[in-house]
Records
---
Amino acid sequence: MIPFLAALAVFGLVFFVVLSFGGAQPSVRARLEGLRRQGLTQEQAESQLSVVERIIVPITDVPVKLIQNLLPTKLVEGTRQSLVIAGEPMTLSAFLLLRAVLLGSCVMLLVLLLASGAITLSLVGIMVIFGFLMAGVFLPQLWLRQRVGQRQNTIIKSLPDAFDLITTCVEAGLGLDAALSRVAEKVEGPFADELSRTLHEISLGRIRRDALQELGVRTGVPDLISFVNAVIQAERMGSSVGTVLRVQAEQLRVRRRQRAEAQAYRAPVKMIFPLVLCIFPTLFIVILGPAVITIIQDFPGSK
C-alpha cells in the first residue's frame, strides 16, 4: 500500500508540474476572446480548447483562489512582479499551484517514509525531514529567481549595442519611435521582445511616456530604467534626445566595462575553493603517493 501511495504522490507532483508549465500559455479567457475575434461562435471557440483548458484549469481555479486569499498580499504581488520580470514563464495561478503541490507532495512523501520506517526521528532523520520541507517551500522560488537573473543578465548584455544603434538612428534623422522599431528588428532576445511590445502599445494609442515606464517595470533592469527616465525628462524639458541617448550609451559602455573588471577581480577568489578541494588533493596524491608507498615499504616495522 505504501509503495502505491508513494507512486501516486510522485505522479500527482509530475502531473501538476506539467500543468503548471502549461500555464505559460495564454489564459483560457484570452484564448476564447482571440477565437471569437476570428469569427467563431461560443460553441466553436470552446471546441477549439484542449481538454486541460476545458476541464482541468477550471477545477484548479478554486484551490488557487484559496491559496491567494491565505497568502499575504505583499507576497502575492511580489511573486506576480517577479513572474513579469522573468518573462511570464507561467501564470501566477500556475506558480502558486506548483508551490502548493510541491510542498504537499514533499509532506506526503515524508509521512509515507515515516510510516514505512525508512526515516526515524533521529538527528539524521530530522535533518532529512527539514531538507524535504525546505525543498518544498523554497525550490520554486529559487527557480523563479534564477529565471529573473538570467533574463535580466541577457537584457543587460544587449543594452549597450542596442543603445548605440538607437543613438545612430536618431542622429541620422529618424524619430525615437522609428529608431526603437529599427532596434526591435535588428536586436534579438528578451529586450527586443519587450521593445516590440512597447511599440505595439504605443501604436494602439498609449502615451509613449507611460509605455516606456512600463517597459522599465517589466524588465526591472536599473540601466534601462535610467535610460527611460532620461528620455522622458529630455522630452519634457525640450532637450536634444540625441545628446541624451549618446550620454546614456556612453554610460552603459562604462558600466559594462566595470562589470567585466569586477568579474575578473572575483575570479581568483572563486578559484580558491576548486583548487583547495579538488586540484590540490589530487596533486598531493600524484606527487607524494609514490614516496609514501616507498617509505612504508622500507620502514623497519612494515614487515
---
Amino acid sequence: MSKEINDHDSVIQSIENTRPLSAWGKGVKNAAIDLIGTLEGREITEYNLLNGASNWLHYSEGGCALIYNADIAEAYCTPSELKRFYRAGKNLAYECQPNSKETWIQLQARALSQACRLILKNC
C-alpha cells in the first residue's frame, strides 16, 4: 500500500476513536469518514476534499453529499429534533427548514466544514 493510503487509514482510525456526545457530533464524525473515502489515495487537503467545489456550500449544492432534506435531517438531528419533522407518519423535512437562518443544504455545508476541520486536525 502507498504511504498516502496508510495515512488515510490512520486518520480514519483517529477519527473513529473520537466519542462525540451529540447527534451533531456523530453526524460530523460520519461525514469526515465519508469525505476521506472520496480521496481515492490523494493527499488529505481541503482542496482535495472539496473535489473541485469552491466551498462546502457548493459541494453540498452540487450533490456531492446527501441530497434529500430527510436524509440530512436524519444524519445530524436527535430523535427528539426529528419528531418536529414527522407528523401523522409524514416526513415534513421536505417542507420545513431546520431553523430560521439556514436550509438543510446550508446545515449540511456547515457540518461538512466541521468534518473537514476534524480531518485536518487528525492528520
---
Amino acid sequence: MPFPFALPTTSHLTFQSHLTSTTHPSLPSTATSHRTVLRSALKSHKRLPASAQSTNLPTILSALQSYIPYLFALDSALSSRPVAGEDIDVTLIQELAVEWRPTLSSASAVPGRDVPRIKGRGLDYEILSVLHTFSTVSTLLARNALLGLYASTTPEPAQRLSILQSATKHLTTANSIHLYLLQRMHSSTDPQSVPAGAVDVLEPVQAALAALSHAEATLLFVQKDDPYPVLLIQSRNKNDREWMIKAPEIPRVRVGLLARLCLSAAEGAGRAVAGLKSGVPGGVSGELVRYCEDLRKVSRAKACRFLGIEREMEGKMGEGIAWLRGGMVEVGMEPPKDSASVGLGKLRSEWKGWREDKRLEKGKADWGLDAGKAEEGRVLEWLERKWTKMNDTMNVQIVPDSRPLVAAMPSGRDVLTPKTWVPDVLLEEEVARMRALPEVGVGEDGAQSSDEEDAGEKSTAGLAGRDLVGAFPGTRNEYRGGNDSSYY
C-alpha cells in the first residue's frame, strides 16, 4: 500500500511544428526542450530494474515540475488568457498529435507485451496525460516513503510520524491532481479530445483514482494513532525487544473516531471499485480492481478492530471478541472454532505474512498488492487469541454472533478535506525571456524523434571530422567523396 502503478512512456512531440508565437517565439521550442527531458526520463525509468526505480522517482518529478508551467503557458495562450500578466499570442499551425502508452488497461497485464500507444489530438490530451503521470509519481513517492516503516532498525516515534506525514502529503497531492483533471474534463469544450483507448485519462477512471487516493490517505491518518501494526513490526525485528515489555495504547476518546475514519476509507474504496467496473472501454487492469476491493475489506476490518477495542475498554470483552472475528471474516480469514482450527489458521496467516516479509526484504515491486490484508490479519488474530484466553480464564463472557454487529456498523466520517490542485505558472522573468528568438543551434525539431535516431546521429557526428585509417591527415575528401567511411 499504496498501489504500485507503472509509469507511462510517450512519443516525441515538437511544439514549434504545430504552434508559433509572434510575441514570444522561444516559448514553443523551450516547451519542447523540457518535454524531451521528461520523455527521456520516462524511457530511462522503464529500463531500470525494479529495485532501482524508486531512487529515480525524484528525477522524473523534477522533469515534470519543469515542464508543466510551460505546458500550461501554451494552454493559456491558446485560450487568450494572460500568463504572468502578459498576453502571449500563439497561433495553431496544425493540430497536435501525440501518443501516450496507457498503463491501467487490462491488456497491460499480459506478461512480456507492452500495450500500444494511444494517439490523441489536441493539447488537452497532452495535459491530461502529463498530469496523470504526475499523480502516479506522487503515489509512488508515498509508497517509497512507507518502506521506511519496515527498515531493519525500527524507526523512533518521531521518525515514524514524519514518514507517515510525508506519505500522506504525496497521496493528497495525487488526490488533488485527480480532482483537477475531473474538473477540467467537466469544463472541456471538446469531449472528443480523449480517445476511447486511453484508459488512464478517462473520466470514470480518474474519479475512481481520486476516491482511491483519498481512502489511502485516510488510512495513513489512522495509522498514526494505531499502535498494533507497529507492535507486529517490532515483534518481527530480531534486534527490537521493546514490544515484549510495552503494551500498545490508544486514547479511549479516539477509538470510535478511528473506526469511523476507517469506514470512510472503505466507502472511498467502494466508490473506486464501482468506477473501475463501470463499463470502461477496453477494461481496467484486474490487479487494480482487486487492490481496491482488498482495500475496502481491510478498511472495514480495521473498523471492526477499533470497535472491538472500544467494547473491550468498556468491559464488554465478549462483544469485543465478536467484533474481532467479524473483522477476520472481512479479510477472508475463518474465525477459530476449536484448537485444531486455531493451529491451522495460525499456520496459514504466518505463511502469508512470511511471504509478504520476503517481498519487503527483497524490495520487490509487488509488495503491498494485498492492500495490507496479511498485516491486518496478523493483528486481528493476535488480539483475538489474547482476548479469548483472557475471557476463558477471567471474564467468562458470552461471545455473540458477529454478523449482526457488522451489519449495524455506523457511517463513516471524513477527516481530510479534498483540495483541487493549482498548476504552477511561469515567473515574469521567464515569460520575458521567451520574447527572444530561439537560441542558435537548436534545430527546428528540438530533439530527435527516437532513441535510435539519437544514437545514429551521434555516430555520424563522431565520424564526420575523422580522417580515414592509413590516410595522410587532411586528405579525407580525396577518398571516395569524403563522406563515405569505406575504402571501396
---
Amino acid sequence: MGTSNKLAAGLGRFVEARPNIGKVGATITILGSLLSGATSVSFNHVAAAFTVVSANEITAVIPDGATTGEIRVIVPGGVTLLSNKVFEIVQ
C-alpha cells in the first residue's frame, strides 16, 4: 500500500515550525509547501533572518523581541502563510 500526502478538503496552506518552542537566537526549521521565493518570516510580527532551504523548508533565527504567537511567512504573490500552532518563546 502507498502513502498519500494529500491535504484535507478545505484546509488552507500553512507552515509548521520544528520544534514549536524555542529561545531567542535559536535556529528552527519551518516546513510547508511552495516556500521558494519567500520574502519574509516573522515571529508574532517581529521580522526574522531566514534562509530558504528548499520549496518545502526554511530555517529561521528567532529574533530579539519575539514573543509567543504565530509565525508568518510571506511567499511570492504576497500570500501570507500562518503557522498551524502557536510558537512558544521560552527563556
